Predict the 3D structure of the following.
Amino acid sequence: MVDSNGNNHDFSTQSDSNNYDRMKELKAFDETKAGVRGLVDAGIKEIPRIFISPPTVDDNINKNLDAESSKEFSIPVIDLGDIKKGDAHQRKMIIDQVINSCEKFGFFQVVNHGVPNNLMDEMLEKVRLFHEQPAEVRAAFYRRNLKASSAYLSNFDLFQAPSANWRDTYYCSMAPTPPKQEEIPMILRDTLMEYSGHVEKLGLDLFELISEGLGLKPTYLKDMECAKGWAFLCHYYPECPQPELTIGTAKHADSDFLTILLQDNYISGLQVLHENQWVDVPPVPGALIVNIGDLLQLMSNDRLKSVEHRVLANLENPRVSVACFFHGTHLEQPSRMYGPIKELLSESDHPKYRETTIHQYLTHFQAKGLDGKSALDIFKI
C-alpha cells in the first residue's frame, strides 16, 4: 500500500506465519494517514492481521438460539410528535415510554423529533463524501491527538485494543467550545453546523424527559450540564473483503451521558446486546437512535442501562453513521464530581458507584480501549 507521501507499506495477512511484528504494523498503518479506506483503495483481497478479531465469548452468542427468537425483540420506536401539543396526558405517556426504554433496553428510536429528514440525508451523504475523498485530502486532517477538537483518524484505540476495527472516523467537538470554522473540513462544515443546532435541541428535550421520568425536576440533568458539551463521531465502515474475520466496531458501551445516532439509511450492521442475544437494529426511515451512556447509568445508580452494542463489517458496500455524544463539560470543569443522584437513593438502594470526574472516567475508557469490558467496573463500590 502506498500512502499519501508516496511511501510503500506492506501488511501481514492471516496467511503469513513469520516475521509478524504487530506494533510495527500498527505504526505503519497509522503513518499512511489513509485509514481503512486506503486499504480498500489499494485493492487488498485479504485483511491485514492487525484487523483480525481474536476469538471471544461473543462468538457463541445466538449460535444455539432459534433464529426467529432473536427477531421477537426490536428496539422501541417512540413518536415525539404529540409532545408539543401541550397535552399533559400525552406527555406523561411519552415520558413513560422513554423511561421504560431506558430502564429495560438502554436503547430506543425516536421519530417526529424535529430534525428535518432532508438534513439527516445530507449529513450522511457529506460524511460519505468526506471519507471517499483522495487519501491526500483526508490526510491533511489526520491526527492521533484525542484532545483535538477536529480530527480524522482510524481507531482512537489503535494501540490499545486487542484488534483494530474496520472503521475510520472524523471527530468534531462542537460544544461548549467549537473548533474554528476553518478547522472543520469544508465538505462537512455547513451541514454539520446546521445539524448540530437541531441535535442540541433534541438532546435538551430528551434530558428533560428523562429527568421527569426519574421523578426529578425537568431541568435536573440540564442543570448538571449533561447537555452542555457534545461531539460528533462521523464513522465510515468501508466494504470489507473478509467481514467474518473482523468487526466494524467492537462490543462496547458509550462513554458519555447520552448518544443520538443517525445511522445509514440502507446498510445495517448495528447490533444491541439484549438478554444475551445480539439483536439487529435495522434502519427506520426518519428515525434517530438514542441510547444511554455509562455516565448516566452511574448517575442513575444502575436504574438506566448503558447497553453494549457493536457494528458488523460487511462485504458489499460502505456504511456511514453520525453519533452525537453528550459528554458534559469535563475540559472546562475538570474537577466536577459525578456520582449516583441522591434523590434516587434510599435505605434499600445504596450507592453502587463512587463519585468520579468525567476526566477520570474518560482517561480510563481511552486507556483500555474497546476491549469488551465495562469501563464502569473500576468505579463500583
